[in-house]
Amino acid sequence: MDTPRLRGLLCSQISGLKDVVTHEGIPALCESLGLPVPDGSGSKRDRLATVADALVDSDLPRLAERLLEHSPPAAAVRNQIQDILWADAAVPEIPKRFRREVARALASEEIFLNARAFDQLLERLWDLGDGFPFEALFGGGDRSLRAEIERHVHRNPEDWSTEDLFDRLGAFDASNRRFALFLEGLASPDVRPDEGAQRRFVQIVNEVLSECDVELRESDIVGGYPAFTLVSMHMGVKERPKNLIFASPVKPDLRFRDALNNDIEIVTNAEKVLVYDRPVGIDGLRWRDLQCWWSETNQIADSNKAKATLYRRLRDSLPKNSPPQERLFDAFYGGFGKAVPDLPALLPEVWLHWDPKTVKERGTAALLRFRMDFLLLLPHGARVVVEVDGKDHYADVDGRADIARYAKMVAADRELKLAGYEVFRFGSGELQGNTARETVKEFFDELFRRYGVLLNPQP
Predict the structure, then answer these.
(1) Would you kindly state where each structural domain of the chain is located, as residue ranges?
(2) Where are the beta strands (DSSP E) in 158-303?
(3) What's the confidence (pLDDT) of residue 364?
(4) Is the pTM of this model over 0.90?
């Protein structure tokens, strides 16, 4: 992320808010942006500039998001801020050649079905010019891109091809994130309120994008319509989770209450296993989603009590003979502090395979890995497994190297990776001593940066 450039843009925008706020209104404005309230001395510009100059780098991304939400700047500046924030996002790259081929492939397809939603999409993503151009004051007519789109796309659609429209918008040179949002928006039920038209559009686009290993993938249902997300064809698992069985260090005694509906019932020891049975959306499974489920399932109205009891329940599921797993768990949740609610939940003791028969009964057809130490369900279908390796992963009960045991472990890793999971391993020795928390925090910082998970400021 280009932090110096982001700082310059934000400081300029915050100082410029002097024109839309009174001295008395500055405290409320600062509160809405998550800024400290300046004292009452000096001009409005000086008061706001003092606050902006005092910001630390870690505060900038969250401030930028709040500024875009509460006091959005002109489109040109907005786009610059967004592109800086999106620079580290895990978005598939689509080279200019394929962007142009997408536009050409859509030549015979209606670019939108709902004109109003289409215009709103363009306003959100592109710089269409000032709302009231200077030349219009003197009878020169509106020459903004907005006016040209009205003239050449809406009133006279034969004037511009889809390629012309993409070119005038700047889509061929836009950031990968902006172009992805554009395609996702064009495929959305708002712009295209007809499922058949949505799927036809997606099919046309995917025929081109498959050449660069990218696709629009169905990721959610919105108002009964499919929603699509642009993803790498090699990233994540295509299917959404249906049942999440976790926080159970022992094999669950379960059965299908309704096999048609995939409804699971825990027969005995229900208190020793958790089953998250709600849809996991495009944002993955965040702590706030998990806590909401926990609160409603256990009828806990107080959010602090729900947070504390959920944390304790998850931690209690960790194996008592594995202090390194406890250290990793504590380091994750302690290290991210107030940012945790918006981050992917670190789920312990997650069951990947469940077989009513034992490994001995199943024989050579037995599945190699039953349970994962930790799992994170990240945005866009990415699934990350985190394992903590003690001696039992590579040695026998007598402490001697066991190549057969190690071979089973790496074979199971290969299966997971081929199924779309990412697997990361910690040696138990890394999670001992005073540096364990720092080691864990650094890893997850890099992991979230890789997958475009935005970290809120820390307390």
Answers:
(1) 3-85, 96-232, 244-450
(2) 214-222, 225-232, 244-246, 253-258, 263-268, 274-276
(3) 47
(4) no
